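Lab notebook, bench 4. Still working through the backlog of constructs that have no structural model yet. Next entry is a single chain of 421 residues. Request: give me the structure tokens for it.
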Amino acid sequence: MTLEPITALLSKCIGVDAKILGDRALGRAVERRRMACGASDLEAYLTLLQTVPSEFDALVEQIVIPETWFFRDRKPFDFLVDFVRSEWLLKPGTTRLQVLSVPCATGEEPYSIAIALLEAGLAANRFDIDAIDLSHISIAKAQNAIYGKHSFRGKEWIEQHRYFQPIESKYIVCSKVRDAVNFQQGNLLEIFANSSLQYDIIFCRNLLIYIEPLACHQILNTLHRLLAPEGLLFVGASEMGKIPSDRFLYLRQPFTFAYRKMDSVSLRRCTTRLERPKHETALQSAFLASQSGIFSAARSPQLTIASTATPRSSIPSTINAASPSEFQKAKAFADAGHLEAAIDCCKAYLEHHSTNADAYALLGTLYEATARYEQGERSFQKALYLQPKHDEALMHLALLKESRGDAIGAARLRQRMQKLQ
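Model written out:
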């Protein structure tokens, strides 16, 4: 018997995409649990999974990835504070801000949200945070609210002593923050199947990358229903390509990856201060582009257009005339949305300039934007071989590894990025 019936069961029950987890990782998890419960072979273990709920839960614990830390990625929390101060607090008749964090893993994210809301000027009695995760173990750790140094990696977002108290060699979240978060174990789709709850803000970061298309569609439908009019949805950087543009309006803020519920937003609101595109660095433009379906040439941050590939026969000849080199042509084609032509120019340029790290990084971003992830990864690796501190290549490669479940590889790359800051 192969792993296929087990992966089908996992897909049916929790929507997980086995291809993202990887056959080796899933195989190791299944083998550990099979041996732990004494099943003679995979067929016997499958029977256990189908008949013993606690064993199914135990296998899920083996395959979930509770990789998180306080104020992970930082910028969404800066944006949250800005949103509350400049928009939410100015709304007439507002009562309590309702927030959902799913998956919440071991609690660092919902506690970070609570701290950010307090920093924004909201009193603790003016907001509620519901936090949900599939893992019993993660929920127990979150409710315990005691964390080691690993949960505070990266740059400090707020003075630690203001919201955490030392306890032996660890830290416990202060009671004001703990009391603001309501934790619940369960499946998002099951918990909210018949719910009429509405949230002003939903953090759903790094869930969709592990979910197969059908389940992803169901989750997005649920999130859209749960969002209040003009509600905000935060996702992970690797998940932006999964968000339907006809239902969610992308808020172009560097490294934030936030959307507003579309059905109650007029086009006029796109010009408000929070939604107006800011000037982005070249790194931010390239990074945002490959994750959201928008591509901006790596060295021309002010030009952005849709990334839908255009047939070569319809490419305007003015682009060719205006570009002095194949590399410049590649960037011009990318800005104009002609991704296949841009790839051809990049490859032609690299035939004679094989030590140009920027060209490999641009090629990797183009491959990524056209869903050729393996080729993109190889291009980013070549860029790093030539220039080990190439920030764009480091960031893109970390996201690619994270999106396919290589949390260790992604963490190592992120550590390299932090040392460069």
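Notes after review: The longest helix spans residues 23-37. The radius of gyration is 23 Å. Flag for follow-up if needed.
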